[in-house]
Amino acid sequence: QNDKSSEKIDVIIVGAGFSGLYMLYRVRELGMTVRIIEAADGVGGTWYWNRYPGARCDIESLQYSYSFSDTLREEWHWSERYASQPEILNYLNYVADKFDLRKDIQFQTRVTTANFDETLSRWNIQTDNNEQISAKFCIMATGCLSVPKKIDLKGMDTFKGNIYYTSQWPHTSINFTGQRVAVIGTGSSGIQSIPIIAQQADHVYVFQQTPSFSIPAHNGPLDTKVEQSWKINYDEHRRKVLGSSFGVEVNDMISDKPATTATSEEQQEVYETQWQIGGLTFIFSFNDLLFNKEANITAADFVSSKIRAIVKDPMTAESLTSQDYPIGCKRVCIDTNYYDTYNRNNVTLINLRKENIEEITTIGIKTKNNIYQVDNIIFATGFDAMTGALLNINIQGRSGNKLKEKWIKGPCTYLGIMTADFPNLFMITGPGSPSVLTNMIVSIEQHVEWITECLDYLRKHHYDSIEATNEAEDAWVNQVNAIANATLFPTANSWYMGANIPGKPRVCMVYVGGFVAYHKICQDIVANGYEGFQLMKNN
Ligand code: NA7
């Protein structure tokens, strides 16, 4: 143990991404002592690690920004409609410097254990540097997509070339010129990186397990008129963002009627308009796409017809359009030249449903039918979403209860903010909140502000702890499931459902009722004196 052992502070925050940085800013305003513990050697979280070629946000840059500081908003200029990973990382570094946040961040340190001391109502935190920190409150800002899915293919350790993970990309620039590259996985990370890698590599082999639905991003330099509009009429734009179910300002062409009542011509017109505008709002073309199977098929068919029109080889087009889940029920991707990349001579799509990977050999990837000789294998295989980072820490609450055991059948939370038997432990965008189904920054700010208000309330009223009750938690879990069951989400094997990780319990880990409804529930709970929470004093 070093000299920092058994240090006492008010608040510990785990993680220095978008949520941790803003939480630190707010806790400091309360005048409490606070420290962030961060495993990386810099700020950024998701945007620190995911440095793969083409990494970019799928929410427009002006909306994927903090709202809390007028000067920050006025000073900062985004260069593109959708910001690239390096630009977002620059933004977060700028924020850290501007608000002098680094002095309260301890980098290159990982929290390994968090134990609740019931007598003192404090969390004892242990790190991989063997430090012990005692904090009254522990706030998990650990991210929803931060723990890579473990891949253990037969023979992986025998491969003589390079293995990369998009989610843990090296910090040096890698050039694939003259090389043969395999990319495994066709979610957002694969879809963003494949077109760029194909421009460099001698040959790219894409191994597709499930085809995604991808909509053109139509990315480009940020329109100065749009930027001006946001800078001048910020409150108006913000009102629209906060009034939308997904925390994004939807374009005026969005229809608030169901596809099922539209004629086929009307459907095509709306889809075509949204396709030309580009981006995730395609999925809101009609208001029943995520609820009604027939409606959903009309949107899925439209995207498939676009793919067939772009991709020249019919076999490849067929593989790219063999999605077997409703569009929108796995995260829709947005891309730049993804489908057109398959028209290049140096790109081959391998459909793993027809020839699955048998093993990795010293020279490449062996499937049922072929051996693909490659110099590099890139895994774009996704994350242990929502619960991975929380369960990687040994968290022990009241009466020795372990979070890992409590969540063995799936995460149970109240509002996705707290879990019963774990007093004073907050989660930012935890499972059971709208989080990944919304603009993350909107959801992060809402949670940070809710937690800040709560900490202030506890202090003013001399409470030592707050904890979700079992009854409130059970009711919330039931509500989250009931809402999900009224949609098409449970029908897809998505990471929203935990279905991308073998053995992970299959439950909907996201509140799909929308940001507006959720926000109101959170406000009402506070207005009703923290309904569903137990507030206690020590003695
Ligand atoms: P995703 O969206 O989870 O995509 C992972 C992809 O990797 C997906 O196509 C998977 O197929 C595929 N996959 C996963 N495991 C394997 C194995 N073992 N073999 C072959 N293929 C596999 O992760 P991303 O990083 O692309 O994107 C994550 C989020 O970041 C995204 O949703 C945006 O919000 C930003 P599957 O679909 O499981 O059949």
TrEMBL record:
It comes from the Eukaryota. One of its GO terms (molecular function) is monooxygenase activity. InterPro entries: FAD-binding_Monooxygenases (IPR050775), FAD/NAD-bd_sf (IPR036188). Its cofactor is FAD. Keywords: FAD, Flavoprotein, Monooxygenase, NADP, Oxidoreductase. Belongs to the FAD-binding monooxygenase family. This is Cyclohexanone monooxygenase. It comes from Adineta steineri.
